Amino acid sequence: MMKKNVRKKLADKIAKYLITVGGIGTILAVLLVFLFLLWTTIPLFKSGEVSQNSLAKSELSDVRHGIVDEYGLIAAVFDGEAFEIVSLPTGDVIDRMPLKFKWTSFGYNEKRNSYIFATEDGGILEVDFEFKKDNINQGVAEGKARYSVTDGRLMEKIGDQENSYYAGIKIKDLIKVQDGKKITNIDEIRNDNDNFVAYLTDDKVLHLNEVITKENILTGEISTQVNESNIDLKKVLNGRNPDYLKINSSKTTVMIFFKDGEYISIDTKIFESPKILENKKIFSDGRKITYLDFLIGRNTILVGDDKGYVTAWWPIEDQLNKNNLVFSQIYSFYSGDDSPVRFISPSKRDKSFVILNEKGRVSMYHMTSGKHLVDIVSNLTKPKIALLNQKNNKIAIFGNKGDKIETYDLKIPHPEITFRSVFGKIQYELTSKPEYVWQSSSGSDDFEPKFSLIPLIFGTIKATIVAMLFAIPVAIMSAIYTSEFASKKIRNSIKSTIEIMASLPSVVLGFIAALIVSPFVENVVLATIFSFIMIPFSLIFMGHLVQLLPKELLNSMGKYRIWIILLVALPLGLYLGVIISSFVEKLLFYGDFKYWLHNYNYSPLGGWALILLPFGVGITIYLYRRFLYEFYESLLENKSYHQAGVIELVKFFVLTICSVIITFFVAFLITKAGIDLRYDLPIIESIMNTYVQRNALIVGFIMGFAVIPIIYTVSEDALNAVPEHLRSASLAAGATQWQTVVNIILPVAMSGIFSAIMIGFGRAIGETMIVLMAAGNTPIIDMNIFSGFRTLSANIAVELPEAVINSTHYRVLYLAALVLFLMTFIINTFAEMIRIKYRKKSSQL
Amino acid sequence: MTELLEELKNNEKKTVYDPLLKDENIIIDIKDFNLYYGNKQALFKINMQIPKGKVTALIGPSGCGKSTLLRSINRLNDLLDYVRVEGDILLDGESVYDRSVDLSELRKKMGMVAQKPNPFPMSIYDNVVYPLKINGVKKKSILDEVCERSLSYAGLWDEVKDRLKENAFGLSGGQQQRLCIARAIAPEPEVILMDEPCSALDPIATYKIEELILSLREKFTVVIVTHNMQQAARVSDFTAFMYMGFLVEYGNTINIFKKPKVKDTEDYITGRFG
Questions:
Q1: What sequence ranges are listed for the domain ABC transporter (chain B) (predicted)?
Q2: Which residues lie below 8 Å from residue B98, measured CB to CB, with a gap of 6+?
Q3: C-beta separation of A407 from A354 below 8 A
Q4: A residues 612..641 contacting B (CB < 8 A)
Q5: Are A633 and B136 an interchain contact pair (Cβ–Cβ within 8 Å)?
Q6: Which of A117, A409, A454, B210 could disulfide-link to A103, CB 3.0 to 4.6 Å?
Q7: Would residue B183 count as lying in a domain?
Q8: Cβ distance B20 to B221 under 8 Å?
Q9: Is residue B35 part of a domain?
Q10: Which of chain A's residues have a Cβ under 8 Å away from the Cβ of B187?
Q11: B99: contact with A, CB 8 A cutoff
Q12: Chain B residue closest in CA terms to A842
């Protein structure tokens, strides 16, 4: 006896602890997931970290421009007479190459680490740098310093090994200007196979020179084609020498700037006949240009001015004439002081850049996100240039002759992410207006990833809403049917069938959606839509027809009449859907619905009628209830059962026709007002437009199937939880089953049904496989029900495997996960709160 | 017990009737009524005539089938699909169990008051006029009038007339039950079926309900199921004693209580079992 008691107590205790541990564990697990997501995403929003690395004595003369190698250890700087290769940690000049020619103008090609020079005698030369790193696997002397210079190389000691850094210089003659005119400005763009040079000679003629090199794959023979053209700029230049000349990346525009802010652009789209595009002052407040350069990619011009600002410019569409491009200021950045901008060093990695002003303040910004990454004040007396290395992790600042070289270590992990760039509209390079864009990767190097989560959130909500529009009525109607009308046997079989539906893997549903349903629906779009209209119609129609049967027969059919009605109404609805849709397609959609969708010459009347039909029905029912109900009641007075049935049927047809007429009337008015639902609606733009095979309609339909079971199960439980005595009280008061449902059961179960809907909502939001397979995965914001979209969950599934760990992309995907987590968490919490409240309320009954 | 079951199955047992019933105007006529819950028989060959304008009480120990019989009269048992019936019940000479009968029409003729007060989760006013509203009555003047009349009849009008729009759950248990009675009589049914209406109430509320039942007799036929013998004695004109699904004895209440003819009845009334 005692033994048993002890065992009982022990079992009780173990169970208690296990349950406690399990419960707390669950909460901890959820919390941990949340914290993990938070912990992964928080670094995205940090700005840069700076630490001073070294301050080395240098023997340099006045520096004008320069290049820093990938590691930020050696630099090639240009002082006007020579190039010097400098070791940044020690400040030594390890190599010096004086220019053997007198130059008049030079340009810099950031892509190839090269300079182009125009010489006094009309030649054009190119100076190429190649930074190299060798690993020397020999024993290193013990006491050797970390950095040392030997034989024109910078040696770096790491453990018992050494790396050596050095630069190779190559000088190449490019073109010789025939008549020996002096070149005042020059710029070039060079790719592997072609070379585009623009130069202005002192007779104010702009010359364009294009060299295209082709290699025959079979013979290996190299052929070169040289094109030349020019444009006389005497009139616009008016004897002045421009200060900057730049060619844009697509070689379509040559831009000329004066320090006073005048801007002249020459359209070179047609190489043979360039023409002047724009000529204007870019600043209206009299600011002067003090420095000017391209951002990476040669699309954005960064203009540093004497007030301490750097503005970013590119041509955007003119608001009046969309074909006209106007050079406009898009962004503005403050250098930190009201002193002139001295130098701008664009990053070679992303859209960030470093500003150096006359006061020696160095600021680093990311252009599109506007994130302020770095803010340093240089210790040099008069800093001249600040150079950023390729990895964006070092800044080297050079000063006057005899000054030191200052280097800073940077840590800027995610320059392109701010709260605004993830959730707000961003104006990306070369676009005309701010937009929400998700585009995480591309083939080109100077591509800027675009991480707006809004298109994904939009896609998620779009998918969810369309799915819920389909799932809610079906699930709740079937819950009402099984809990209130069906016999126990039917109820059990329906319930288990729906539960089997829940166990269908969503990948199977997605497969069905993508490979069976969407190709099928694509051919019968309008018939599908009309079936959704005609099936309820034919159900109601059958309901009216059945009333014409003798009352005795009807009552003796009992519960089977629902099945009999369904058996006739379903095929009838489908048949009517097909028949009417083909008729309507000819009548309203010019014979082809899908063509009508994107041919705006066709009248939008049919589309409007289709969209407005539910409203037409609603208005008709409202008007009938408001004005005709009593007349109708008086008609029914003193009529036999059969006569009443006939009157009901006539009423049904009259109301149907009225709905159609009202719908068309409204559709006609809107069409007359000139509003087209395919392209010019306010805010949402379009409701229906070009048909894409995998679209919101298909996803809504199939995802509806995935959420029906959960909504059904929970709302069926809510309906069943309505106390039996209320049901029988209502029935005993003479209410029909339907009246009982509408007046008593539904109001009581409403909160439970609501929470069922919210749980379904949560499920639909997180659904991945179906949307992944059937939604087309296009991250666009488009209300069009016939277009695809991409959801947060599908996006994570698609992109996470290819995202580099801890990269910006990787962390943004975790941010997407966090957003998804919060969305479902909020919705589920909300649903649970309502459910608990409802449980309390129902215990009162 | 098993002997009794055998007797019942073999139709050997016969109900004892009080001859006084012959003079009454009959409204409900139960004829050879058998009821099965699945395979289990719950009512055995009930033959019973309920007089119009009188209070008839059904008494008997728990599980004897009195509630089942009451719910068979307005076919509430039909809600359960494993219920099967044999025989017939006539209301005003018309079969209740005919296949062509419209259940909602039928139930409109019979108000019902349940064991536990079961007001709907809506206002007092809406509760009372619910049977009329579902019947398509929309005129506010009619609804107001019916509401006042029914509540007055149920003796609740003075207590609630200032808070008709308040939720019915705000009332006390006894008030709720009288509200349910008001709801039952609102559509002016012919019969009011009461299923142990006082079992969930305190003595004072019970007293009020009993008073009400007595006054209802003027206008309606009342069939009441009760556990409480004193209550049956106080409010009813006729009493039926049921035992194990069988109608043992049925007759004038005074006769049943004063000189029962069957020994089981006597045992039950005197409290020897039940």
A1: 28-269
A2: none
A3: no
A4: 633
A5: yes
A6: A117
A7: yes
A8: no
A9: no
A10: 733-734
A11: yes
A12: B121
Token pair for A381: 């007396």
The whole-angstrom distance between A744's CA and the closest CA on chain B is: 7
Structural domains in chain B (count): 1
Cβ of A489 within 8 Å of Cβ of B130? The answer is: no
Tokens read off for A343: 């130098």
Q: How far apart are CA B274 and CA A523, in angstroms?
A: 74
Distance (Å) from the alpha carbon of B74 to chain A's nearest alpha carbon: 7
Give the pLDDT confidence of A752-764 residue by residue, as tens digits. 898 899 989 988 9
Residue A96: strand pairing partners: A84
CA distance linking residue A449 with residue A126, whole number of Å: 33
Give dist(CA A167, CA A153) in Å, integer. 8
Residue of A nearest to B116 (CA): A725
**Nearest Cα to A432, choosing from A351, A327, A317?**
A317
Name the token pair of A151. Answer: 């034989």
| Spatial contact of B150 and B131, defined as CB atoms under 8 Å apart | no
CA A120 – CA A103 distance, rounded (Å): 6
Phi, psi of B225 (to 5 degrees): -95, 130
CB contact under 8 A, B118 and A487: no
- Asked if the structure places residue B155 within a domain, the reply is yes
pLDDT digits (tens), chain B, 274 positions? 556 666 666 666 777 777 666 667 888 999 889 999 988 888 988 888 898 888 999 998 888 888 999 999 988 887 777 888 889 999 988 888 887 788 888 888 899 998 888 899 889 999 999 999 888 888 889 999 999 999 998 888 998 989 899 888 888 888 999 999 999 999 889 899 999 888 888 888 889 889 889 888 888 999 999 988 889 999 999 999 998 888 888 988 888 888 888 888 888 888 776 5
Cβ contact A725–B114 (<8 Å): yes
Substitution target from B118, B138, B177 for chain A, most A beta carbons within 10 A: B118
A551 in contact with chain B, both atoms CB, cutoff 8 A: yes
Q: Which domain holds residue B180?
A: 122-188
A808's tokens: 């910006």
Instruction: Compute the nearest-CA separation of A650 from chain B (Å).
Output: 20
Contacts for B243 with CB less than 8 Å, ≥ 6 apart: B4, B60, B61, B64, B264, B268
ipTM summary value: 0.89
Q: How far apart are CA B205 and CA B200, in angstroms?
A: 10
* Contacts A744 to B, Cβ<8 Å: 120
- Among A487, A555, A748, the residue with its CB nearest the CB of B99 is A555
Distance from CA of A496 to the nearest CA of B (A): 19
DSSP B93: T
What is the SS3 assignment for A93? strand
A759 to A234, A644, A797, A833: CA distances (angstroms): 73, 43, 22, 12
What confidence score (pLDDT) does residue A24 get?
A: 96
Q: Which of residues 556-575 of A touch B (CB under 8 A)?
A: 556
CB A250 within 8 A of CB A265: no
Phi then psi dihedrals of residue A304, to 5 deg: -95, 135
Contact B108 A845 (CB under 8 A): no
Query: What structural domains and CATH numbers belong to chain A?
Result: 49-250 (no CATH), 454-604+676-844 (1.10.3720.10)
Q: Residue A841 carries which DSSP code?
A: H
A482 CB neighbour count, 10 Å cutoff: 22
What pLDDT score does B68 carry? 92
Query: How far is the C-alpha of A547 from the C-alpha of A545, rounded, in Å?
Result: 5
Is B99's CB within 8 Å of A556's CB?
yes
Looking at the domain assignment, is residue B180 inside a domain? yes
d(CA B193, CA A635): 35
Residue B197 in contact with partner chain A when CB distance is under 8 A? no
Check residue B127 and give its pLDDT. 93
Would you state the pLDDT for residue A675?
86
Size of interface A-B (CB pairs under 8 A): 84
